[in-house]
Amino acid sequence: HRARIEFDPRFTVAEVPDRLFGSFVEHLGRCVYTGIYEPEHPTANEDGLREDVLELVRELGPTMIRYPGGNFVSGYRWEDGVGPKEDRPRRLDLAWGVTETNQFGLGEFMKFCRTVGVEPNMAVNLGTRGLQEALDLFEYANHPSGTHWSDLRRSHGDEEPYGIKLWCLGNEMDGPWQIGQRTATEYGRVADQVARSLRMIDGGDDLDLVACGSSSRGMPFFGAWENEVLTHTYDSVDYISAHAYYHPLDGDVVSFMASAQDMELFIDGVIATADAVGAKLKSDKKINISFDEWNVWYQTAPSGERPEPWSVAPRQLEDHYSAMDAVVFGSLLITLLRRSDRVTAACLAQLVNVIAPIMTEPGGPAWRQTTFFPFAEASRYGRGTVLNVNADSPGFDTAKYGEVAALHSVAVANEDGSVTVFAVNRDLETPMTLEIDASSVRVGDVTVSTLTGERDAKNTLDDPERVAPVANEHVTVKDGTISVELPAMSWNTIRIV
Ligand code: AHR
């Protein structure tokens, strides 16, 4: 197999948005408790945050973190999670069938964000609650002082307002599983009211607000939902959300390798719908996508089963990712970068233990899943400007998407003058020689890092370093053309410095 790409730094797609490398912390399973927060852990700092996890999060490189859900937020009373910990109530969490202790809440989350250096992305409950509670939360978080809620925050030790700019107006409100599911009209109306009212408080012009889009492209009202919601909210919000999770259906791993095709179609559909609403309204404004949940998720895995009823922080959704999953995951990242002209925020769901790149044991170690590596490399080297790439690639047949190009790639011109190409060989069987026409850039050193392996190889508690990227020495440079050998089923980061 042989594939070829070309690009020119003069022909660009978009600046890579900082928020593209977001992640997500939900009160779900062990994401918070014994994930990021475990006061009894030997590495815990004075805030109860696990230093071993903080170190891995920094290495992973998320830029923004969405919190506190997810389905959880639709039954959440944010006041339960602030103030003295001994006074915080235990509550039933109907979304996940567990007990929430509220030992971690908004103040702890803000400490976490400051410690790692990420932007907070806060979701409000539009399931069991509505406008007033959203306003109260906003006033507690962002108003400086002199009112009930802002002074309460100060009495809890946080003098300075949090200044949270990015807010999700509810979560997956179209889903029958959602506490307080709404019709598109009901949701569109309330989302618009919340958006307009939040903007009446401090810094309203400066807020970035996300309306809920469809929970997946497969939802029965996909498209119609976005149309109705945006008809109500077009002037008051900035983003419409998209969520997508992939796993092999009926063992069809070949189609699974091409999952990014679905993500592309999803993005096309949402943008077409949003732009159609804008056109009808004769608006110059563009609504962009916040792809605020994406990942590989084996929704049929036993780890997704219901835990002991009303237990505290049980193991839920603890997927263990394989080398194959990491390659598909990398391909999803490539799509987000390629479409970053309109996908201007995104969150890998989630951060720790729950369908996550980082795993922990309570009281024990933390380690990197296979999916950790594509994310860390993309966040580190995928900064700057996305370039227009022309590609010529052999194809492979899939049951779900027909013939699909084996090569999936994107090129990013980095601010320091280097160029990074991320390339996935989606063919499970056949290696490929990738020729990169680099005649438009200065080619000094070329280094390639490649992640591949046995399809099912995973990093586990007992064998935490089985899968990791290695230096790929099969590179030659001749007359402005770089040739790299890409193994079958591989994720590759090619740095042209
Ligand atoms: O990320 C896991 C769950 O997936 C989230 O709680 C929900 O929003 C989505 O359905």
Describe the structure.
The protein is α/β, with parallel strands linked by helices. Strands 3-4-7-8-9-10-11-12 form an 8-stranded parallel barrel, surrounded by 6 helices. A 7-stranded antiparallel sheet has the order 2-15-19-20-26-22-23, with helices on one face. The two termini are about 25 Å apart. The mean pLDDT is about 95. The protein contains 10 helices and 26 strands. About 50% of the residues are buried. The protein has 2 domains: about 120 residues, Immunoglobulin-like (Sandwich), CATH 2.60.40; about 375 residues, Glycosidases (TIM Barrel), CATH 3.20.20.80. The structure holds alpha-L-arabinofuranose. The site of alpha-L-arabinofuranose has 10 residues, from loops. Its EC number is 3.2.1.55. Keywords: Carbohydrate metabolism, Glycosidase, Hydrolase. Homohexamer; trimer of dimers. This is non-reducing end alpha-L-arabinofuranosidase.
Kindly state the number of beta strands.
Answer: 26
**Biggest sheet: strands side by side, in what order?**
3-4-7-8-9-10-11-12
Distance between the termini: 26 Å
Give me the number of helical elements: 10
Which CATH first-tier class of the largest domain would you pick? Alpha Beta
- CATH architectural arrangement of the largest domain: Alpha-Beta Barrel
Total discrete domains: 2
Report helical residue fraction. Answer: 10-25%
How would you name the CATH homologous superfamily of the largest domain?
Glycosidases
Work out the radius of gyration. Answer: 22 Å
Beta content comes to 25-35%
Bound molecules: alpha-L-arabinofuranose
Q: What is the approximate shape?
A: globular
